[in-house]
Write a structure and sequence with these properties.
2 domains; mainly beta; 1 helix; 166 residues; single chain; 10 strands; five-stranded antiparallel sheet
């Protein structure tokens, strides 16, 4: 299930860093070693202020549908509204997951505010197929976005927006 198509009131993006190991020699010299080429620890804080109960329910339903902090998903373009090029592309080698439960504040006049924090989850881009529709059984793909009527075999790890996928 894709993240709801809502424009946040505020975003806080922390770009994370590449995995690395720093070592100090007995002489005091520093050496650093990169242990990967993809960023880790990217987080995105989203605030939705003065939203309707219907919009609040969309976010709550999404959180429940991905099993809280367990499942992964891709963000809608509305989340990055105002960016020409989002800091993290919508469909890339990163999916997102909730870092914790959303914080909901009751407002006045039937309006609510909700804050949530998301963190990236690295996936192998070669395992990602977008607009799978009638995706064939081979090659095996771990992630399918917009699965349509994608084949049930081989077993898929994640089918996002499954449609009629079997």
């Amino acid at each position: 299930m894709a993240f709801p198509a809502l424009v946040p009131s505020a975003r806080v993006y922390i770009p994370g860093d590449v995995p690395q190991q720093q070592q100090v020699a007995l002489s005091g010299a520093n050496s650093g070693y990169r242990q990967g080429n993809r960023r880790i620890g990217q987080t995105l804080g989203l605030s939705f202020n003065n939203i309707s109960e219907a919009d609040l329910n969309l976010i709550k339903a999404h959180y429940q549908s991905v099993d809280g902090t367990f499942g992964i998903f891709f963000l809608s373009a509305e989340v990055w509204n105002g960016y020409t090029t989002p800091p993290v592309p919508l469909l890339s080698d990163y999916a997102w997951r909730y870092a914790g439960a959303p914080s909901i504040t009751d407002g006045s006049c039937d309006l609510w505010s909700i804050e949530l924090e998301l963190t990236t989850y690295a996936i192998d881009l070669s395992d990602l197929i977008v607009d799978g529709l009638t995706a064939a059984a081979t090659p095996a793909r771990g992630y399918i976005v917009d699965g349509g009527a994608a084949s049930a075999t081989p077993a898929r790890d994640y089918v996002i927006n499954s449609g009629a996928a079997t």
